[in-house]
């Protein structure tokens, strides 16, 4: 090959990469939050907040932030965003949206219909958080746009801090896809609701999903923390509070330091899943003190183990009622007991599984005082 | 052959006999060529000299006076000149005259003359270097005189192996050049190469160190300098001790050090004076700033015109807010800013220092902010350009910092066309180019390419002096020196 030909190839190669599609930042209208609703006709409605920041010319450095609320309707998510694009100056760009809100109607349908267009766009932030609301997404976003203008990434931080405290499962746009297409595993998403009294958006717990859609049932934050402990996916902080009787001092708060789970799956009439959960906890709030005495610790350990086992029973009954296999027992069967899985596999395999949870609490630490 | 004259004159030069008339016509009867006849001891002596090159005082007291008072005919014993040589041909005589010697001829025996050293010197006092400033280094810089520069170098490099070789370059006007090296440390291969290349210079005249650099460097089509120009004797001396070669050009206060590798340009005298932690830190800062200066403008362009999803959300909004008033594309925006900065930089070099301060304020601050307020550039662009130029000023070597400025523009263009891909292509191209470069046959990008872990001791970090106990493998006396911190072992063995 001649030198000239080589040069030509070297020159053409970068052009082939197709990286020339310039997207100027100054022309883009960057979305900061998006929500998706489904109306009665089966049309999707996308609601987005486009944020503008103005550094005023007269008084230097003074920054004013304004939110622009845009909505668009269409037969698909893409069509809806095209409708928005027609109504905003510049290019409507959802790439920087770090929070996606699914309205309750959308969530109850197949949520993959919404997510599909997002996965096809290479620029979408795959670390975006997804949440479900108890109302329409439009409602929540309108509220945020009016009330949380100055608060930066209010919703993202709200969800993030809940994850840090092991209140909700850590799910992003990227990780949710593997749950969606895993036949032996389900997931839960943060469940948002608007608190009318405080005029605030709050996380009320987690929405249980089965397959691709919301079951309608949600867990409280305490329940989902316990479930996360059973899944061994809690964060560094997992704070729980239990009510004891008056005699024993009211209530005790503790932080779970480490978890060890033993899972035994056996096929009898139904598939029995015996889960033994060992929690190493640190007492963080217990006014009666005297944790230096062994009998005191034994007492707390016994009480907490009993309470948690009861709670876990209720929790797994709830999961069974909604067929939501957040724990991933189906995946466990696929991996270690394929013969059992072959017998029960199908849409509603969770009906055949009976969970028998047991919790053992070990008090390992009492903070810096006894 | 030093003189290229027309043939008729050339034939005169070659005449064996020394002839005053011939010399005079060779020098075109220039009016500052003086001669004087002296009658002494029944002999007639003629002294020929170029008035403007000769120290009058020296000539009178050391040559003419003893000559008149001379009692016997033994000239060599009577004259006080420190350097006397015989001139047997017109050519030698003329070259001597041009170097400031005076020619003494005994009348009657025209075939023999003596060249006596009487040259005047206009050396300025040794002063602190202006460009290569240091904090703790010596406050001595090279001057314009060749002999004085060798003196300065010798005083900081006392060694019997200190070798000086003189060359005279230029075919119509001549310039003296000295090649200096430490014989026991320098690779003979390199000395041979340098000599060969210097001898092949056939320029009409040598104007400055740049002329020689152009003629002897391996590659001219590259933004990277392969020879180190310095005005510091301590730096030159340190490089000699590293086995490099110095070239001093008469009349030029800059000394050429060769061969230079990429990392040579990041070393300063202060690195070795301060403790090694500090030296290493500054070394690291310099490398880091080099990379910043090279790719920051390109990165900015790629960010705001292709990949703004990688910028944190809060930054996106604030960048966008000032960008939205700018009518140009990011590439044009930065180009305007960079070019106006280059203007400021170029203008400030020629200004007297008192005006330069005012100029800096007006040029930098006022124009900068006004440009942003007028919407010609954005705040982001201004920050990027300012950071880039500050980073390029960090480079201790002027030529190296210019190389980044030149390389920055094509990288910006690539980023404007291809985004990150363009930057990757550009940087790869630069790296490949660097790896291919050689300086006097030695790999320029060493010790990175080819990788040599041993040589990393004095590149990104500077290890303490006692750890650098090996000489270069190419030096004739490659050996391991004794450990300098042996005292620590001795002390710990001492009984209490």
Describe this protein's structure:
The complex is a heterodimer of chains A (370) and B (496). The longest helix of chain A has 29 residues, at 294-322. The mean pLDDT of chain A is 88. Chain A folds into 2 domains: 23-219, no CATH class; 221-370, Nutrient germinant receptor protein C, domain 3 (GMP Synthetase, Chain A, domain 3, 2-Layer Sandwich). Chain A contains 11 helices and 13 strands. In chain A, strands 1, 2, 3, 4, 5, 6, 7, 8 and 9 form a 9-stranded mixed sheet that branches. A 4-stranded mixed sheet of chain A has the order 10-11-12-13. In chain A, helix 10 packs across helix 11. The N and C termini of chain A lie far apart (81 Å). By secondary structure, chain A is α/β, with parallel strands linked by helices. Chain B has 3 domains: 7-117, no CATH class; 146-260, no CATH class; 274-443, no CATH class. By secondary structure, chain B is of the alpha+beta class. Chain B is elongated and about 100 Å long. In chain B, helix 13 runs antiparallel to helix 14, helix 13 (330-350) packs across helix 15 (379-394) and helix 16 runs antiparallel to helix 17 (420-436). Chain B is built from 18 helices and 12 strands. In chain B, strands 1-2-4-5-3 form a 5-stranded antiparallel sheet, sandwiched between helices. A 5-stranded antiparallel sheet of chain B has the order 6-7-9-10-8, with helices on both faces. Chain B has helices at residues 7-13, 20-26, 56-69, 75-78, 90-98, 146-156, 188-199, 209-216, 233-241, 269-273, 276-305, 313-323, 330-350, 353-373, 379-394, 398-418, 420-436, 486-493, and strands at 33-40, 43-50, 84-87, 101-106, 113-117, 162-169, 175-182, 228-230, 245-249, 255-258, 438-439, 442-443. At the A-B interface, strand 1 and strand 2 of A face helix 11, helix 12 and helix 17 of B.
């Amino acid at each position: 090959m001649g030198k000239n030909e080589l040069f030509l190839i070297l020159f053409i190669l970068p052009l082939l990469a197709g990286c020339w599609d310039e997207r100027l930042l100054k022309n883009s209208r960057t979305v900061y939050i998006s929500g998706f609703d489904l109306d009665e006709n089966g049309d999707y409605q996308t609601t987005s907040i486009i944020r503008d920041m103005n550094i005023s010319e007269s008084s230097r450095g003074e920054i004013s932030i304004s939110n622009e609320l845009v909505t668009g309707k269409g037969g698909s998510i893409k069509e809806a965003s095209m409708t928005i694009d027609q109504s905003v100056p510049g290019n409507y760009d959802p790439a920087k949206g770090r929070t996606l809100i699914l309205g309750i109607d959308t969530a109850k349908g197949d949520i993959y219909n919404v997510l599909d267009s997002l996965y096809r766009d290479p620029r979408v932030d795959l670390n975006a958080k997804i949440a479900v609301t108890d109302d329409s997404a439009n409602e929540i976003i309108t509220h945020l746009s009016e009330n949380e203008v100055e608060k930066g990434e209010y919703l993202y931080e709200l969800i993030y801090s809940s994850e840090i405290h092991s209140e909700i499962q850590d799910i992003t746009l990227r990780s949710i896809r593997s749950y969606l297409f895993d036949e032996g595993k389900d997931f839960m998403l943060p469940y948002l609701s608007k608190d009318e009294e405080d005029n605030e958006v709050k996380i009320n717990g987690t929405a249980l999903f089965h397959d691709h859609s919301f079951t309608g049932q949600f867990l409280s934050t305490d329940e989902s923390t316990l479930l996360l402990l059973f899944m061994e996916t809690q964060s560094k902080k997992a704070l729980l509070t239990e009510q004891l009787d008056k005699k024993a001092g009211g209530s005790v708060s503790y932080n779970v330091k480490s978890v060890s789970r033993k899972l035994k799956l056996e096929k009898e009439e139904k598939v029995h899943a015996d889960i033994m959960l060992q929690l190493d906890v640190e007492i963080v709030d217990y006014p009666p003190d005297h944790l230096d005495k062994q009998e005191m610790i034994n007492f707390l350990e016994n009480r907490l183990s009993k309470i948690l086992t009861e709670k876990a029973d209720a929790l797994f009954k709830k999961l069974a009622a909604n067929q939501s296999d957040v724990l991933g027992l189906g995946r466990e069967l696929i991996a270690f007991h394929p013969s059992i899985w072959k017998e029960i596999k199908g849409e509603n395999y969770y009906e055949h599984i009976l969970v028998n949870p047991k919790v053992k609490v070990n008090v390992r630490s009492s903070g810096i005082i006894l | 052959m030093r003189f290229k004259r027309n043939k008729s004159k050339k034939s005169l030069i070659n005449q064996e006999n020394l002839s005053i008339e011939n010399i005079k016509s060779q020098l075109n009867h220039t009016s500052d060529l003086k001669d004087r006849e002296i009658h002494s001891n029944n002999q007639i002596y003629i002294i020929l000299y170029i008035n403007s090159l000769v120290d009058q005082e020296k000539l009178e007291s050391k040559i003419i006076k003893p000559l008149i008072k001379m009692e016997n005919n033994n000239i060599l014993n009577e004259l006080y000149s420190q350097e006397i040589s015989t001139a047997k041909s017109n050519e030698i005589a003329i070259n001597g005259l041009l170097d400031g010697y005076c020619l003494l001829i005994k009348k009657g025996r025209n075939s023999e003359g003596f060249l006596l050293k009487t040259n005047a010197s206009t050396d300025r006092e040794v002063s602190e270097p202006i460009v290569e400033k240091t904090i703790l280094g010596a406050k001595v810089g090279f001057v314009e005189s060749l002999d004085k520069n060798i003196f300065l170098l010798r005083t900081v490099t006392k060694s019997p192996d200190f070798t000086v070789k003189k060359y005279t370059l230029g075919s119509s006007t001549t310039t003296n050049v000295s090649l200096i090296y430490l014989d026991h440390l320098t690779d003979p291969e390199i000395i041979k190469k340098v000599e060969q290349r210097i001898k092949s210079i056939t320029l009409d005249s040598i104007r400055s160190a740049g002329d020689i650099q152009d003629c002897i460097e391996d590659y001219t089509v590259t933004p990277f300098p392969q020879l180190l120009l310095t005005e510091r004797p301590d730096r030159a001396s340190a490089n000699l001790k590293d086995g490099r070669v110095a070239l001093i050009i008469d009349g030029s206060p800059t000394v050429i050090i060769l061969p230079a590798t990429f990392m040579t340009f990041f070393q300063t005298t202060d690195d070795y004076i301060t403790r090694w932690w500090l030296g290493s830190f500054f070394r690291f800062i310099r490398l880091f700033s080099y990379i910043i200066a090279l790719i920051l403008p390109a990165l900015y362009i790629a960010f705001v015109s292709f990949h703004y999803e990688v910028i944190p959300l809060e930054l996106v909004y604030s960048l966008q807010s000032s960008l939205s008033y700018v009518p140009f594309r990011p590439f044009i925006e930065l180009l305007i800013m960079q070019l106006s900065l280059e203007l400021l930089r170029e203008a400030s070099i020629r200004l007297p220092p008192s005006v330069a301060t005012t100029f800096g304020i007006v040029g930098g601050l006022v124009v900068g902010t006004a440009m942003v307020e007028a919407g010609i550039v954005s705040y982001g662009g201004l920050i990027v350009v300012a950071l880039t130029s500050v980073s390029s000023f960090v480079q201790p070597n002027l030529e190296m910092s210019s190389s980044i400025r030149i390389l920055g523009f094509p990288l910006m263009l690539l980023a404007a066309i291809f985004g990150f891909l363009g930057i990757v292509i550009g940087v790869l191209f630069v790296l490949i180019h660097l790896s291919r470069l050689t300086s006097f046959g030695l790999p320029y990008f060493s010790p990175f390419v080819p990788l040599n872990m041993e040589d990393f001791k004095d590149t990104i970090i500077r290890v303490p002096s006692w750890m650098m106990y090996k000489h270069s493998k190419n030096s004739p006396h490659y050996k391991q020196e004794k450990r300098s911190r042996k005292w620590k072992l001795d002390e710990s063995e001492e009984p209490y």
